[in-house]
Design a protein that fits this description.
64% of the residues lie in helices and 7% in strands. With 136 residues, the chain is mainly alpha-helical.
């Protein structure tokens, strides 16, 4: 119960720090993004996607390279099993590096643009209780 009371007071106090309050719904503004936080999250998400995409590509390439090798009666077996196992890891590292770089650039550009324009406005979706005149 104490946590709910603390959250209520934090929201009641911080609601007035926002740009505007129209009497019905609070509106908030994202003024800056932590660059290191964006790089970490962007890198981890990109790494996971790179691993998944690398696994899919390794499977497709292994299938078609083996199919072509059999069709051409080639002594080479197509894409080897070592490459099938390594491709997802190489893709994950590649995506990690470039995903972190892109996240850094996006966060930096957002912070610069938000400094001039004020940031993105959003609504957290709190509902006002009629009988208590509070948010939560």
């Amino acid at each position: 119960m104490q946590d709910a009371v603390d959250l209520y007071f934090v929201l009641r106090i911080n609601i007035h720090y926002y740009v505007g309050y129209d009497g019905m719904e609070p509106k908030w503004r994202l003024r800056r993004i932590g660059i290191l936080s964006a790089v970490k999250i962007g890198g981890v998400v990109a790494c996971a996607m790179g691993f998944i995409i690398g696994t899919v590509w390794a499977t497709i390439l292994a299938f078609f390279s083996s199919l072509i090798a059999v069709a051409m009666d080639s002594p080479m077996p197509g894409m080897g099993p070592v490459m099938v196992l390594l491709l997802p890891f190489f893709a994950a590292i590649f995506y990690l590096v470039f995903g972190s770089l892109v996240s850094f650039l996006v966060a930096l550009l957002y912070n610069i643009a938000a400094g001039f324009l004020g940031g993105v406005e959003f609504d957290l979706g709190f509902e006002r209780k009629e009988e208590t005149d509070s948010f939560i």
